[in-house]
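README: folding subset

This subset contains proteins for which both the sequence and a predicted structure token string are available. Records are stored as plain text. Below is the entry for Serine aminopeptidase S33 domain-containing protein (348 residues), shown exactly as it appears on disk.
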Amino acid sequence: MEPKSKFPGVDKEVLKLLEANMDEAPARRRAREAFKDIQLSIDHILFKTPCDGLEMKEVYEVNSRGLEIFTKSWLPRTSPPKAIICYCHGYADTCTFFFEGIARKLASYGCGVFAMDYPGLGLSGGLHCYIPNFDQIVDDVIEYFSKVKGNPEYHKISSFLFGQSMGGAVALKVHLKQPTEWDGAILVAPMCKIADDMVPSWFLTQILIGVSKFLPKNKLVPQENLAAAAFREPKKREQTKYNVISYKGKPRLQTAVELLRTTQEIECRLKEVSLPLLILHGEADRVTDPSVSKTLFQKATTSDKKLILYPEAYHSLLEGEPDEVILQVFGDIISWLEDHISKSKPTE
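--- output ---
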């Protein structure tokens, strides 16, 4: 008797693509191409937003560092966008699975949404989930979003950063490098500090930092199951398996060192955060520390800031919570955008 398939109803030839080594982009691209319609057909609230009125475009472009970067945009088809939202995705992730549903929802509201996969993640070129230098990711993100914002059609509309988890750290670093370039930021469970439960002991951390100088790409860092820690609802946690190009191995040594270094830097620079902020965090988050979101709210120098904590909610507020919580989080985001698009829109 054959073992029960992890993906019921999926063709065996398609499943063979998942057996390939996903370290390099071509294998990830083949797997995503085969699975993209299957992903959108799963029973998740994010994929129930109609997209008939949206124009979606996927592009590969070579950036100034010679890296092939995957980008995607979602735009309302019948009218100019009210604002542009530039999205920064989380660790091990991509902008082509769960974020597809988030982007459609925001674009249906009237915003133009733009996203890219970081080098080494999703469909972009590079060794899977290898981050040799976090600041290089930030510079790559700035390069792409500056190109988006340079479009003459968008000069007179508001632009916002939107960062989830590690993407929250990316968004904050983008702001710190471009302190006056953005009209606000939406941060969902931002990685200003990795939760203590997710970090190895101090002694083991020092050993790993030392070893990373010699074996930076090796996968040696112990880690709890991220889906179990991030998704509260069991059915949605099970659906994470359909994110077939997400990175599922142990963190690479240099990647882990860069994440730790970046969170330590951001934690020391919270007082430099000066743009309008919406911070959303689950009180039961065991991946990124909600107490640091509270500290960010307190220390950020902007007077235009809002922190919303969701009781009992885990890390993945827009993907892994019960439907009513996901809708509440979306409602809070749209409400904040409505207020800030009208506030920050330049006068003619």
